[in-house]
Amino acid sequence: MITVALPKGALLGDSIALFRSLGLDFSGFLDKANRQLQISDPTGTAQALLVRAQDVPVYVEYGQAQVGIVGYDVLREKHPNVAHLADLGFGRCRLSVAVKASSPYRSALDLPAHSRVASKFVNCAKEYFQSIDLPVEIVPLYGSVELGPITGMSEAIVDLVSTGTTLRENNLIELEVLYQSTARLIAHPLSYRLNSDGLQPLVAQIRQQTAAAVAV
Amino acid sequence: MITVALPKGALLGDSIALFRSLGLDFSGFLDKANRQLQISDPTGTAQALLVRAQDVPVYVEYGQAQVGIVGYDVLREKHPNVAHLADLGFGRCRLSVAVKASSPYRSALDLPAHSRVASKFVNCAKEYFQSIDLPVEIVPLYGSVELGPITGMSEAIVDLVSTGTTLRENNLIELEVLYQSTARLIAHPLSYRLNSDGLQPLVAQIRQQTAAAVAV
């Protein structure tokens, strides 16, 4: 039986819709009263795990799930050892550098050397500032990164932006886009190569479905 | 003006009650409709930041908040450079090693060498298994650590236990307690030593209040 790792949060609804279009029903996870983290499709052909977005690649890497859906942002930050199989097109957002609108900075290179940059994406932020050869101090945060510039703890942030509402509400402006992110289909490399539990036909179906959705 | 960093989640209610008993009202954070992360006490003598538990020591370390409330578990895991000023007594829980009840293991030393141990407390787990000289592979997770043994990804977990309900619901049993945790009052070391914004009298009041509560 195939096990699928699904991410809690923003990507869950579209992920469940995708599997439903293939005849696999994991909609039990959308029930607010649900406390189960592991459910089976009613047809008994697949099961799903509901885990934190950052944990999806862990379950896939260790082979507890043969496939998973996760944002490109998580893959870029963690570099897990998983096969990247398809861009699913949904969950579009971008990782950006932002500063206070009232600051004098209008590009990342305007930031003074040794500025503080608050981020949940410590590795991506480090890589980016190294690539523009600007030495900065990354302040690792777990949530509400926008508080960094508001409190004066950091000059800038590196954070995910989708609609831009959080930035606007906090009088922050985007300076640079590090990369665009969308939901990705990942798989355990060996399971995929060995076609365990009929993984390859499932992946082929998802790719077809996704290509069709993109074409519309 | 003193700035206080308060942790979202389990410790928030008791933290706000503590400051209310000192005449500082941050109860706006308890309003479910509240979206503000920074509020002032109505008397205008102090303000509070609402941040993730793991971020409390960061705001205190960088001096954006002079004091903060955070669980001992976060201090043990991150070793931030802050002054530990008082044990506040509430938010009691423990960091424990747990395994499936159906497993043959009845103490941590029964675990086979190179077992996998899933945990959000990577550093604490590493330290503990080093102290008993048992080489294990720590699998870092962000949430729902109990899924580790359920899916067979890990033999054991190291996780916070308060009532034990999560363990029981998932047929897991506790083998060892690494340490007990409670909420702690922390401060920016220099601000405390220099008594900036009258920090020392506030801390003295909190200590008195806490001692009184413990005596009851």
UniProtKB/TrEMBL annotation, chains A, B:
Keyword Glycosyltransferase: yes
Pathway field: Amino-acid biosynthesis; L-histidine biosynthesis; L-histidine from 5-phospho-alpha-D-ribose 1-diphosphate: step 1/9
Catalytic function, reaction form: 1-(5-phospho-beta-D-ribosyl)-ATP + diphosphate = 5-phospho-alpha-D-ribose 1-diphosphate + ATP
Matching InterPro entries: ATP_PRibTrfase_cat, ATP_PRibTrfase_CS, ATP_PRibTrfase_HisG, ATP_PRibTrfase_HisG_short
Domain ATP phosphoribosyltransferase catalytic: 52-207
EC number: 2.4.2.17
One Pfam short name: HisG
Entry keyword set: Amino-acid biosynthesis, ATP-binding, Cytoplasm, Glycosyltransferase, Histidine biosynthesis, Nucleotide-binding, Transferase
GO molecular function, one term: ATP phosphoribosyltransferase activity
Described purpose of this protein according to its UniProt entry: Catalyzes the condensation of ATP and 5-phosphoribose 1-diphosphate to form N'-(5'-phosphoribosyl)-ATP (PR-ATP). Has a crucial role in the pathway because the rate of histidine biosynthesis seems to be controlled primarily by regulation of HisG enzymatic activity.
Domain notes: Lacks the C-terminal regulatory region which is replaced by HisZ.
Protein name, per record: ATP phosphoribosyltransferase
Species: Almyronema epifaneia S1
